[in-house]
Amino acid sequence: MISRRHFVAGSAASLFAAPAILKAQSLWRTYPFSLGVASGDPAPDGFVIWTRLAPEPMASDGGMGIGNAPVKWEVASDDRFREVVARGEALARPELAHSVHVEVTGLQPDRPYWYRFEILGERSLRGRARTLPAAGATPASLRFGVAGCQHYEDGYFTAFRHLAREDVAFVYHYGDYIYEYGGDFPRVNRSGDLFEPVRLHSGRRDLYNITDYRQRYAQYKMDADLQRAHAAHPFLMALDDHEVQNNWVGDLSEEDVPPEVFALKRAHAFQAWYEHMPVRRSSLPRGGAMALHRSLKWGNLAEIDLLDTRQFRTDQPCDDGFKPACLEVNAPNAQVLGAEQEAWLGRNLASRDTRWNVIAQQVMMMSLDRRRTPDEAPSKVINLDSWAGYEVPRQRLLARMRGLDNVVVLTGDEHQNWAGLLLDDRDRPVAAELVVTSASSGGDGQDLRRGSDTILANNPQLKWVNDQRGYAVMDVNAERVSADFMVLDRVRTPDGAISKRASWTVPHGRPDLVQG
User: Fold this and answer.
1) Long-range contacts of 331-337 (CB under 8 A, 24+ apart)
2) Given a cut of 60, is residue 470 above it in pLDDT?
3) How far apart are CA 212 and CA 202, in angstroms?
4) Strand pairing partners for 357?
5) Residue 234 in contact with residue 170, Cβ under 8 Å?
6) 334 Cβ partners below 8 Å, 6+ apart?
7) Which tops the pLDDT comparison, 14 or 238?
């Protein structure tokens, strides 16, 4: 039982009074669940459900003051809540921006449930989640979505409206949930064209402290299409660079900021990310760090390893960017995952008896020649912020995949769709990599970016590339993993139409890619 003292502690008496009085006085100037609801990190017996109280979402405190607030929650086996199977009350604390992370347990495996929240007579919208199959189960199939890179200023989140309608068990979000920079002026996009924002970030142009990050998340989460997707499916959340700062790694900023100062900014960014994501308490930031790598098992059909490719990475070699490799690319002490996470992944790959190993991570693992014209550079140009800039740990991981013949790597970050094979140090394929485009980052795009034909010609392991926005839907069964790449005809207006641009299949038993 949460007492009235807990609810009003630290708040002005004029704002917080007894609950009955609060209801009569219409405490909420606007809807307290303005940021929607979400679920995530499913297990066979439950999942996380999330919301954040924010009647004034762009205010520094969300309009909640500094008091604790008890929030009721319930989970039902039907969408009308005629059969409630779990309920309780969680305390929304100001230290965590009045966010709520409830880890629901005691549910049945491999089935949908519905959930909602309530406070002082105000009720949230209804969300839908799904539990995983029981340990040892033998499911025949799995269908899930992949999405990420959603720059608010570059386009509308129409991809999430369409993704909400897909019949999927969950969505893997590979990161770049927010973008930490912005402005009301044209900028140059990745194709070298001037780009005019279609809608503007609120608040400070660049983010520095916890209030800045909270306001940016609030603005993104007020988007109705993003709320629809979260309410429709549980999400597996990862983190890339723009949740903190472009191309950050470890305790290193891409700007001229001392590591000890950047560590403070990163701590603010991590806290705001946790406050707005449907993740477990094990991911709560501690000591300026977060535990983000984890696994999800879909019976004996597939196991998905979610990686963290930012927090433990060493500095990008050759001063970062897209350029020919320098000697640092082969540095023996370079790290992408860090020793502990790399060992964890290696143990997982070596000890599993699941049909498929799916590695879900952020930056491209293929080492591609990025030259877009024949005379751009005298030698291979690589993306130094990707695994290609870290050849020693990249080859270690590829060696662990060799002979498994059941590894599929899912990637984001590139703002393009790619399908290709991962080659070991003898140019032998060991796995397939499927890179999923952005939801909005980069604007409308086109079928092929300038220079794509040259990149395809220079990289025989690369089978396909596409420069439109959208998401992917993965279909898994015992014989194959297939990806439907769903693309939008436009994102700079909110009425973009979705279509399937291509399908690529990885057959079980050999590292290969087959179109169609």
Assistant:
1) 331/390, 331/392, 332/392, 334/390, 334/391, 334/392, 334/393, 335/390, 335/393, 336/309, 336/312, 336/387, 336/390, 336/393, 336/394, 337/293, 337/307, 337/308, 337/309, 337/312, 337/313, 337/393
2) yes
3) 10
4) 303, 407
5) yes
6) 314, 317, 328, 390, 391, 392, 393
7) 238
In angstroms, the CA 324 to CA 315 distance is 17
pLDDT in tens, 289-344: 999 999 999 999 999 999 999 999 999 999 999 999 999 999 999 999 999 999 99
Q: Going from the N-terminus, what domains does the chain have, and what CATH number goes with each?
A: 4-130 (2.60.40.380), 141-515 (3.60.21.70)
DSSP tag of 327: G
Q: What was the pLDDT predicted at 196?
A: 85
Residues in the chain: 516
Residue 14 has pLDDT above 80, yes or no: no
* Identity of the residue numbered 81: F
Residue from 498, 503, 466, 499 nearest 156 by CA:
498
User: Which runs of E-coded beta strand occur in 320-406?
Assistant: 322-324, 356-360, 381-383
* C-alpha distance from residue 83 to each of 37, 75, 488 (Å): 20, 9, 39
**With bands split at pLDDT 50, 70 and 90, how would you rate the model's confidence at 382?**
very high
User: Cα–Cα distance between 29 and 20 in angstroms, integer?
Assistant: 16
How far is residue 298's CA from residue 91's CA, in Å, rounded to a whole number?
A: 32
Give the span between the Cα atoms of 59 and 35, in whole angstroms.
13
Structure tokens belonging to residue 486 = 């769903």
